[in-house]
Model the fold of this input.
Amino acid sequence: MKNVQADEDTGALLTIGENAYRRIRSDIIFGRLAPGQKLKLERLRDSYGASISTLREILNRLSSEGLVVAEGQRGFEVTPVSVENLKEIASLRLLLETHALRESFAAGDMEWEGRVVSAHHKLARLEQRMRDGDRDDTELWKRYDWEFHQALISACGSQVLMDTHAAVFDKYLRYQMIALSFRGDIAAREHQILHDAALERDARTACDVLQRHVEGGVAHALATGTIG
Done:
């Protein structure tokens, strides 16, 4: 009985830790924890309900992902942003996503087409609402954006590639949230072209549009003046 109870207690701790990790990670990506913000363990404990030791493990984990900077004895802070870092992340995203697109377009079946169509439908509906002036669901918009781009490459045949792309996309998304970068009709048209190219298996068009899409997103984010 004691061993069973110990296993149950460990499972509960892992659940608390994983929940806190996901919440902190999301708060960094969506800008609720600002770039350069000091991450005080006592304050995090009150906000996320995890122990100091668990939080230290979480922050070290996020440091290995590049979302947190460990400052030795001085503690932790949210990774700062810079123009150079944004450009590097965008270049890496393009490298990964164009390769994955080609593989996915070549191997995709009807189930894959369904994922692409479904993800695009949700994204297009929310983009229309945002173009109409409703900006209350900015986070949901970016989640749907993430889902659409993941759907496009979901038939690439490599889970490692999918996971690596997702991690890079999250870092790119953080910059978009910091800059509140929404390009309206331009981005919506590019997403529509990507959707159509996927159904037509036109990888060349998709890769060309993706490059314009990412480079345009970087230019738009930098034009806001919020990243320096």
